[in-house]
Specification:
By secondary structure, the chain is an alpha/beta fold. It is 51% helix and 10% strand. Strands 1-2-4-3 form a four-stranded antiparallel sheet. It has a four-stranded parallel sheet with strand order 6-5-10-11, with helices on both faces. The radius of gyration is 29 Å and the shape is globular. The model has no long low-confidence stretch (mean pLDDT 95).
Length: 595
């Protein structure tokens, strides 16, 4: 169904055209003075000079023309030339009834895009053999939400975790493991048997080996050389090292999947840097032959500076002076791989905003050398830093980097304690239900706390504030949904049916305010995806929850004796519940039945 603003704007355009005015001036917006009106049109102000008329004269003409419109309850011309609009209650109720017809698929009137696209989204970016920590949070939750918004709008979204699984870190692990367990068959020259199916380490051991080896390489030059040689041998196809590498990948990916699942984050592709390696030789050969790549100070580079640049953009390095590849090489080869395998219309990278220059180089190089089609969009969605209350990157109390698993577990424990403490004789949860609810509330606290901030901005991760049941928080949103579920359950338990109920005309200001918020849904989610801005959807969810709670506190619902009124109220609550749950599903979390 059409967005509410589009319907109103079209009506306004017809009024402008009636008097011979250009319809481009008929834009309608949500009022910035909700105490005076619900929507406004300021076109008469801009049109006055062209028409050589007073703005209030034009506004008055338009107000008269719209006075009998089915869409408006009130249209008033206000000096110096504003048009203030209030929607007709009957029209608004009818619009919401149309939204309710889209309840079965959870879209509530939000239409799919006219031309669905295949969009790849690169987010996550963990390194194998290392646990997920809070530094991985933003990429994971922002990327997942953007992907879900794209799916909701009807696009084919392909999420790729793009793991760091190639390079020196692999050599470090292999070299350290060889020091500890030199008798393993992976290190025996000329070994011709079958390598063990089970890995020679657990994920916990692997996570200890890597930082130990990394620290040792900074202190022991001889060990670093061994690690670099192991890396080269691995990349050149050493069978034992490849078998060991496969163990590292499998153990790491199993652990990553477990932890991403706790975040309600999933990926269509579990590819890493290694998957792009065989695309590199041909890509480099073509760049050389077509005259894009040249040698500078021993390294192979491609110029990406443009005439319009006001500051220097360094060349994109393709190969180091020793012929080794870099992140640039792998990312460019990955673009080749993605174009060949999936033909995407867009590739979105959800990465720390401090990498913007790097991606500028990579994108320009890819476009200049023809790795992407002319109409393929490469988009960098840079996010800010997640900081502690001290304004510095979020750390544990002892100054270390906190694991995501630990963060979620700590917040779940807090939520469980709150649930248990707030139980009364009328609402008692068993332990299993309480722990399930605590996990959902904790996830909402973390995800909403992150997503409600504009992605590009740094923000303070304040656990105390994010876990509060009051204010602009995930738990507050869930509490609002659970409140509706409780009312609907009581209505059904009283022997009533939810099916067949319809939203009626608003009988109070708070009811109309809730209806107006609901009617914005399809416009908000469409706009949020167009801007790749989950924070816009969070702002809407918060506004809708506030409107709901205001309506709840001012209205008799279950105690209403007028059956027609009560049924309308219940239908409105059911629609609100559905829209809120569709929104939070797109944001990547869900609500419990009770809290």
């Amino acid at each position: 169904m059409k967005k509410l603003l589009d319907v109103i704007t079209r009506t306004m355009e017809e009024a402008f055209e009636k008097f011979g005015y250009e319809k481009s001036y008929a834009r309608v917006t949500v009022s910035n003075r909700p105490d005076l009106c619900e929507f406004q049109c300021n076109g008469a102000m801009a049109l006055a000079k062209k028409e050589k008329k007073a703005p209030i004269e034009i506004a008055g003409q338009l107000a008269d023309a719209l006075s009998d419109s089915m869409y408006f309850e009130e249209v008033s011309a206000v000096k110096p030339g504003f048009l203030n609009l209030k929607l007709a209650k009957r029209f608004l109720a009818d619009y919401l009834r149309q939204m309710s017809q889209g309840a079965s698929d959870g879209h509530y009137g939000c239409e799919h895009v006219e031309k669905p696209m295949t969009i790849m989204i690169d987010y996550g970016g963990p390194n194998v053999a290392k646990p997920l920590h809070v530094g991985h949070l933003r990429s994971a939750v922002i990327g997942e939400s953007v992907k879900r918004m794209g799916i909701f709008m009807g696009n084919t979204m392909i999420g790729d975790v793009h793991m760091g699984d190639w390079g020196l870190q692999m050599g470090l692990i292999i070299a350290e493991l060889k020091n500890r367990k030199p008798d393993l068959p992976y290190f025996i020259s000329g070994f011709s048997g079958e390598y063990p199916k089970e890995p020679p380490f657990t994920i916990s051991e692997l996570e200890e080996i890597y930082p130990t080896a990394s620290k040792k390489s900074k202190e022991d030059e001889q060990f670093k050389e061994k690690a670099m040689q192991a890396t080269l041998d691995l990349q050149n196809g050493n069978k034992g090292y490849r078998a060991l590498w496969n163990h590292i990948i499998r153990v790491s990916v199993d652990d990553l999947k477990k932890n991403y699942k706790k975040l309600n984050v999933s990926f269509e592709l579990w590819k890493g840097e290694s998957d792009a390696q065989h695309y590199i030789p041909e890509m480099v050969r073509r760049m050389k032959e077509e005259g894009y790549a040249y040698v500078s100070d021993g390294a192979l580079v491609v110029d990406v500076m443009e005439e319009t640049d006001t500051k220097e953009i360094p060349p994109c390095m393709i190969l180091k002076s020793d012929g080794a590849s870099l992140y640039n090489t792998t990312d460019l080869a990955t673009i080749v791989q993605r174009m060949e395998s999936y033909h995407p219309s867009e590739i979105i990278y959800v990465v720390d905003k401090r990498q913007e220059l790097y991606f500028t180089q990579v994108f320009r190089c890819a476009r200049k050398t023809g790795l992407v089609w002319d109409d393929t969009k490469l988009y960098f969605l840079g996010f800010g830093t997640m900081n502690g209350k001290d304004g510095k990157p979020f750390k544990t109390r002892d100054g270390g980097v906190m694991r995501l698993e630990t963060l979620l577990s700590d917040i779940e424990t807090q939520m469980y304690a709150k649930i248990v403490a707030n139980q009364n004789e009328n609402q008692v949860m068993d332990e299993a239900e309480a722990r399930t609810a605590a996990a959902k509330i904790a996830l909402a606290a973390v995800k909403y706390g992150d997503l409600s901030n504009q992605a590009s901005k740094d923000y303070v991760f304040d656990v105390e504030r994010f876990t509060s049941f009051e204010g602009n928080t995930g738990p507050y949103i869930l509490y609002s949904i659970v409140r509706i579920k409780s009312i609907l359950n009581k209505y059904v338990q009283a022997g009533r049916e939810l099916a067949g109920l319809a939203v009626g005309e608003a009988g109070s200001e708070s009811e109309k305010a809730l209806q107006l918020e609901l009617a914005k849904f399809n416009g908000v989610i469409e706009g949020a995806f167009a801007e790749l801005a989950p924070h816009r959807l969070c702002a809407y969810v918060y506004d809708l929850s506030n409107a709901l709670n205001h309506f709840y506190h001012e209205t008799k619902i279950l105690a209403e004796t007028d059956v027609t009124k009560q049924n309308s109220h219940i239908a409105l609550l059911e629609l609100t519940r559905g829209v809120l749950e569709s929104c939070i599903d797109v944001l990547g979390f869900s609500a419990p039945d009770r809290m």
